[in-house]
Amino acid sequence: MSRASSTEAPALTPQFCFDERLLRDFLQLSRSTIDDSITQNLNALIRPSRRGFDPSSTAVRQTDSAGHKAIDPASCQGFKDNVLFPSWQTRSNVLNYCAGVATSPDPDDPDLILRETESARDRERVVNERLDPYSARFFPREARTESLANLVRNQRTVEEIIRARTWGLVAETCSGSSGTWEEALNSWRRTRQQ
């Protein structure tokens, strides 16, 4: 289980958020380290040598895999408290920060003057759709805050899907992991604040 690379938050600056490739790469790396490999992470918690070898186990064909995947509840809780939830919280913090940047005014927008010029030129243009039906088309440039807001919105949707899938596997494998991932994460947040 790699903990450090997936839960360490990058330096949160507007430049980090506006570098959409860097933001996307951070989120993908964090997800691949914890969520995409959740089965491997949970399997790493299994310690079959604790019970020792039972020679009678070879007398009957074992078709029930649930008996073999008994994970120590303390190990499961430790994984959730020290690896899974901190990773989710870090990604939430990054997305919340970048959402705030996306809704704030952007005085340093490098394309602002270009967009204003295009907008003024578009207002002056005479459109005769009878002569050229395509002359009315105008695709204004999207401000980088709008682009960032779209990216954050999409990444939050991805987070919802991935966390639901991950939590389903955790709840299936770890005893005492009931409820939704939102409830579990909020409970973990409350215990950290105390």
Automatic annotation (TrEMBL):
Entry GO terms, CC: mitochondrial intermembrane space
Highest taxon in the source lineage: Eukaryota
Pfam families: MIX23 (PF09774)
Similarity section: Belongs to the MIX23 family.
Protein name: Caffeine-induced death protein Cid2
Organism (species): Penicillium alfredii
